[in-house]
Amino acid sequence: MKGGDGDRTESSLPQDALVDRRDFVTRMGALAAMAALTGCAVGREPTIAPAAPASRADAQAFFRSLPRPELSAGRVTDPAELTAWEAGALLRDGDLGAVEYLEAYLDRIRRWDGVYRAFNAVTEDRARARARELDSTPATEILHGIPLAIKDNIHTAGVPTTVNSHIFRDLVPEEDAMVVTNLMARGGVMLGKSQLGPLATTRALTPDGEITTMNAWAPGDPEVSPGGSSSGSATAVMARLASSSIGTQTGGSITMPSMAQGTTGLKPTFGRVSLHGVVPLSYTRDHVGPLARDVRDAALMIQAMAGVDPRDPRTGGLPPVPDFLRAATPVSRGGRPVVRWETRLGVLPGWTDADGETGENRRAFLRVAEEAGIDLVELVPPPAWEELTSGAFNALRLVERTEPFLPYLKEDVRLFGPTITSFMSGLFVSGDEYLKGQRAKLALLRLVMDDFFSQCDVATMESHIPFDMIGCPLLALPAGTRVLRGRTLPGGVLLGAPPFGEERLLALGVAVQERSDWHRRRPADPSEAEEARMTGPGARSRGRLDVDAVERQAE
Amino acid sequence: MTPSSPRPSDDELDAFIQTRLNLLGVDLGVLPDDDPSAPADRRRVMQAIRRVLREQMPEVSDYPLDPIEVPPVLYPAHLPEVRRPTLVQAESGTGQEGEG
Questions:
Q1: Calpha distance A36→B96 (Å, rounded)
Q2: Enzyme catalytic residues of A
């Protein structure tokens, strides 16, 4: 048996090995039907419900298991350079204050966000008051004092939630979304609202299509996409303007910006995180998840975010929230980090044969994975894989996008700016085609469960689309580098797992990150020339995307 | 679309699209006809919708999907089945709602 720390009792297995996955198949069907019957409302009032309780003992064990950061020993002089788990250890020991930590980020936001434009709004006063409050309380919660960026399609009480759209320009929610409530209950500090594509559909733009947000690795070149639609969330984390962030994913919007900028992005299993208070795009495909600096940070975030919400039926009936922190705690064999659970990583045909740096990065990733005790297996895609994951079946999601926004389409189609076609297209899908699409999703899910994951525990992915369609978890990890427009940028890989396979993904990811340094690479601050180009008196336009460009990105 | 069906022209599809929009009360007339400097115009929007109708939906409609093997799951009446305890819940004795 490869990997592990001898920790092999039945109860220690990851959740995907224990639960009845058939439940998930049935759930997806039922939820699809609920969407068809009832649609979903735009801008419903968010609700408050108890956060998922992860035990304090778990958190203590997690922080004790980590190497101690050396802030005072000169290795790191700026707390904003620390990962959330490194800062968390210092905050818990009283060696770093929440206000001090927050001010490090506010300094960087003041200095650099004119260039990056990662934020739509910075809630400086609110954040400072929150940090002061936390400094007067014991640091027991897992996100105690951690400054976070919240994507601007997620309701925040008293803070505008614009979704970068004319439709929501005046929306000031009265309550936080459930996921924000959970993050705050676990000690998080909201820095502000991060930029996104209008209505969470493309890279970050103004409502009329002007490019706003830069890739942190190319702050002077708007042609280098930051990835979308959670662009600002990824840029804020990679540019050290936030410790961690949350984004949403209906069609790649967490994993794509993560792969574009080198963050570790986790799209959890459908229903694992409440969507109450998140402006909807698709009732059966929306997800909320973290964009973080590494796997451990992603585990801290998802542990805080996940849980049942009585006002989001999609969160009910799932197995209990597992111990993600344990999954992301490295284990060793012979003094070398290895994967916690025996894990077969399925490699799709041709995945390593991709052109140029993509292929090199994937091969390098697999070499490290194998060294970490992960078994590589050749994965044979199930029959009908290509057809069921095609653009045509993917397009059926647009019905769920159109339906709640129809009143705004009737009011004035210009409210949608360059995103108009994706919101109108659902009007031209017939009922039988939509129903066929829902049946096809169930067929795909069964294929994935019976065929795909009988061959492996985790799979390499070419695209986010299949698992966005059926709600299985995805993890984007930095791996290697790529050169674009003369700049060196992070490369990345995308992995998928069966429902409730987040622990498996985190365990695999942390084992690889313990043996590599891709996740530790950070971009330099903008140069003087870049700053002048983007913010100076003669700053040039960042360009714009029109309806055709948005359509191409969606494809 | 079956192979014997006549392939609709752009004009025919545009008439279908416009009629559907008129029925719903969605007015594309507020967009410019053809203005590359605008975020969107009628020409580009109609082109995109024609592609959905002409290319994507026929692919969905033509795809064979066995109604016995892959039945439609239409109504929330299936929810009681969803609420079966999972193995983890059954083993741990926790309830059917997860622990949150």
A1: 25
A2: 151, 229, 253
User: Is the CB of B98 less than 8 angstroms away from the CB of A318?
Assistant: yes
Residue the block writes with tokens 């818990």: A92
The answer to whether the Cβ–Cβ distance between A427 and B24 falls below 8 Å is yes
Question: Which of B1, B13, B51, B70 should be substituted to probe chain A, the one whose Cβ sees the most A Cβ atoms within 10 Å?
Answer: B70
End-to-end CA distance of chain B: 48
DSSP per-residue letters across A427-449: GGS-HHHHHHHHHHHHHHHHHII
Split at pLDDT 50, 70, 90, the class of B92 is low
- Give the torsion sign (CA, B34, B40, B42, B47): positive
Q: What is the reported pLDDT for A35?
A: 52
Residue A45: predicted pLDDT: 36
List chain A residues with CB under 8 Å of B75. 33, 37
pLDDT tens digits, one per residue of A320-342: 999 999 999 989 999 999 999 99
Q: How many other C-beta atoms lie within 10 A of the C-beta of residue A74?
A: 7
> Domain-by-domain residue ranges, chain B?
10-92
Cα separation, A248 vs A280, whole angstroms = 10
Which region, left, alpha or beta, applies to residue A438 given φ > 0 means left and ψ of -120 to 50 means alpha?
Answer: alpha
Instruction: Give residue A12's pLDDT.
Output: 77
pLDDT at A26: 66
Measure the CA–CA gap between A455 and A459, rounded to whole angstroms. Answer: 9
The answer to whether A414 contacts B30, with C-beta atoms less than 8 Å apart, is: yes
Please indicate whether, in this complex, the C-beta atoms of B59 and A392 are within 8 angstroms of each other: yes
The CATH homologous superfamily to which domain A10-554 belongs is: Amidase signature (AS) domain (3.90.1300.10)
Q: Does the beta-carbon distance from A546 to B38 stay under 8 Å? A: yes
A416: left (phi over 0), alpha (psi -120 to 50) or beta: alpha
Give the pLDDT band (50/70/90) at residue B96: very low
**What pLDDT digit, counting tens, does each position of B81-91 carry?**
333 334 444 44
How many whole angstroms from its chain centre is CA A116? 19
Across the interface, of A37, A433, A546, the residue whose CB is closest to B57 is: A433
Residue of A312, A439, A449 for testing the chain B interface, max B β-carbons within 10 Å: A439
Q: What is the pLDDT of residues A213-235, one digit of tens each?
A: 999 999 999 999 999 999 999 99
Q: Do A319 and B83 touch (CB under 8 A)?
A: no
Structure tokens at A555: 């494809």
CA distance A199 to A307: 25
Res A536: pLDDT:
84
**Domains of chain A, residue spans:** 10-554
* CB-closest option in B26, B60, B89 to A396: B60
Q: How far apart are CA A465 and CA A395, in angstroms?
A: 11
Nearest to A373 by CA among A343, A415, A396, A397: A343
For helices B42-51 and B10-24, what crossing angle results, to 10°? 100
- For residue A56, the model assigns a pLDDT of 63
Which chain A residue has the Cα nearest residue B73?
A29
All residue ranges of chain A with pLDDT < 70 are: 1-11, 20-23, 25-57, 68-76, 554-555
Mutant choice from B13, B33, B74 vs A, greatest count of A C-beta within 10 A: B74
The count of C-alpha atoms lying within 13 angstroms of the C-alpha of A525, restricted to the half-sphere facing its C-beta, is: 12
pLDDT at residue A71 in the model:
56
User: How far apart (Å, rounded) are the C-alpha atoms in residues A509 and A519?
Assistant: 10
ipTM: 0.85
pLDDT of residue B81: 38
